[in-house]
Task: structure prediction
Amino acid sequence: MSPKKEASLAKSDATSFVRLGAAAFAKEDFAAAIVAAECACQADAACFDAWLLLGAVLARTKQERPAVEAYLKALSLKPDDVRAWADLGELYTLLLKYDEAVAALRQAILLDPKAEHPAGVRARAVAGRTMALLKRG
Result:
């Protein structure tokens, strides 16, 4: 018997894994989406879309802290992405980390000053809802 070899992934595989993961995510097959996103990240640690997908799937499956890490990695690769900032801000509100939420949502709004991007619109909505809740509480 030969020792078990670990599968090696090429950088070029990352895009295919992201597509596969996005399709699984759309079908709400979150287990498959996580595996595909993790494979994409492993294939190319500099693939922004892989980290963004991983963050989204982890957040959707209530794994908030690892999702934050994935979004932070994505933002280290592409710091001007409105969606990643909005997603991160929303995630921080769920974790009751309001200072971090404000900073992330502010960044999304600054990157989309005219609210032309759906994520910029969502960032404003999340900020408004959060402010309303804090004023009541």
Summary: The chain has a mean pLDDT of 93.
